[in-house]
């Protein structure tokens, strides 16, 4: 089972950008579809974006046009570039493949 480590979170202001990274070990991500999820305080886990083995990308309507998911198979990493961040994007963000999950990285958007 692949192990995932999330990083890159922080506190930013509305309108700022932030890039999250997910580093995988114990397996190659090039054969895996990967996804980002997030969980805001007091809310359920929410799917954010998915990237397929063929680099096709899919986004939740709440982030489409602002977030970009990408993969670097050589580095075994999945990134989430987030732009024009909003207060409602505040959440813990998790990288995932099936039953494997990263530990999460906190993103706080506050003015």
Classification by helices and strands: mainly beta
End-to-end gap? 40 Å
Task: Tell me what portion of residues adopts beta-strand conformation.
Answer: over 45%
Q: Give the number of helices.
A: 0
- Shape verdict: globular
What is this structure's SSE topology?
Elements: E1 3-7, E2 10-12, E3 18-25, E4 34-39, E5 46-51, E6 57-59, E7 67-72, E8 77-82, E9 91-97, E10 100-101, E11 105-109
Parallel strand pairs: 2-11
Antiparallel strand pairs: 1-3, 3-8, 4-5, 4-9, 5-6, 7-8, 9-10, 9-11
Characteristic key phrases:
single chain; 111 residues; mainly beta; seven-stranded mixed sheet; four-stranded antiparallel sheet; globular
Write a structural description.
The chain has 111 residues and is mainly beta. It is 0% helix and 51% strand. Strands 2, 4, 5, 6, 9, 10 and 11 form a 7-stranded mixed β-sheet that branches. A hairpin with a 2-residue loop joins strand 9 (91-97) and strand 10 (100-101). It is globular and about 40 Å long. The mean pLDDT is 96.
